[in-house]
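USER: Please consider what follows.
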Amino acid sequence: MSDQNTNNAIESVLQENRVFNPPSAAEVGASKWLISSLDQYHEMYKESIDSPETFWGNIAKDFHWFKKWDTVLEWDAPDAKWFNGGTTNVCYNCVDRQVEQGFGDDVAIIWEGEPVDDSGAPIDQRTLSYKDLQTEVSKLANVLKSKGITKCDIVTIYMGMVPELAIAMLACARIGAPHSVIFGGFSAQAIADRVGDAKSKMIITCDGSWRRGKVVPLKKNVDDAIVMLKESGGQPVEHVLCLGRCHNDIAWGELDRCWKEEMEKASPDCPCEELEAEDMLFLLYTSGSTGKPKGIVHTVAGYMIFTATTAKYTFNLIPDTNQTFWCTADCGWITGHSYIVYGILPNRVPTLMFEGGPDYPTPARFWQIVDRHQVTQFYTAPTAIRAFMKWGDEHPASCDLSSIQVLGTVGEPINPEAWMWYREKIGRNICPIVDTYWQTETGGHVLTPFPGATPTKPGSCTLPMFGIDAAVCDEAGNAAKENVGGLMTIRKPWPGMLRGVYGDRQRFIDTYWSTVAKDGEPYYAAGDNTRRD
């Protein structure tokens, strides 16, 4: 977003006088609000800033650890170590812990494919329990190991939004092989660039994926990318594991392996690897304004704790209360990583995945899904909301949206007009909107309302998340006055923060830690202009 557009958006917010107090939990059909007042928020927030070791240490106790940490935080700017000395496994905390605690039959993932029959009903629907997920993830982990994938080998994943994408991510996490997920809409050149930088020996893909009634040729794009890599003299790919989804025609070469055949041979028994807290969990490439894409590094323990905690409190996730969470993002983006898979499964609330576009075969498709699956938390982008507005109010009006308890937005600033439409037409003039600001680099929410505690203003992302010492600063690190623009900074470390740019230490420092400093202490600079009202 340009500086002028940012300033216009800010001015629009500042001119907006409407403020909405949180509804009661009963008004939206929730069993309770986990954070029910601003006083409670301020008390928790103060502890998270003044005593981060105590705050995050107490939260971490609720997760499974093979070995408890020695220190909660070690900070030598710009490098953080969270829960150093501890060992854990993200896949265990997402899946196995639920099974071992007796919740194996609970729904973990609800999936709906894009194609529909003549009546408009979806042809492909699946529900996976935690037991199902444990079995499938373990089998795929054994497939990866059978192909020579070991801890620290980066596996590239380029798939459509099918359950197997989440299974592939979790299988990598299970054995300590970092994954690099590439958005299924990216080109062969984008794949080649990312595979080459990560030096991946293995790519997991599908023959194709459905998008607005057409097949996106995923396998062909992978094949073309491998040719590009060979021509450039890059790291050779040794295996391509291909899932049959659309059954479109594909080439089959000596590198290719069939998902179905490999899974049929694999054992369902694969214990989770005991991983160091600061081991790399995944790489996710984000394009900068200049230069090649940056491989953002996230590590095991800090990211796990931060995403699960932000998901829990931002969306009011409470197991055993008939909630169903739907984030409409793709797992090729950080939003899908954090708020489809890694942040939701540890909270034991079903997470919904949808394969297709929001307007196929009808502009009511998203609302039909909310109605059909009784979605309680709905999380989407302002761009989508503006499209919904354009398509007409009759589409959401044709569906029962009364199950929704919390609405969320992500990805860009939301203009007040779209915010109000979202509240009125989707949220019944009751549901709180959590307008979340964050980045690939932050791992999870940085600024956000809490649905039961924070008064909300159309277009404003309100207050900091726990552990986020956010400030609007100039380049000297001085805090800006109210209603004066400046740089969005975070002055202290937080668990979900990036640990580096893969293979490029100097780029990590130059991009994120050299713009703003106070008394020689660098602040994280988000690269966004902002203003505090």
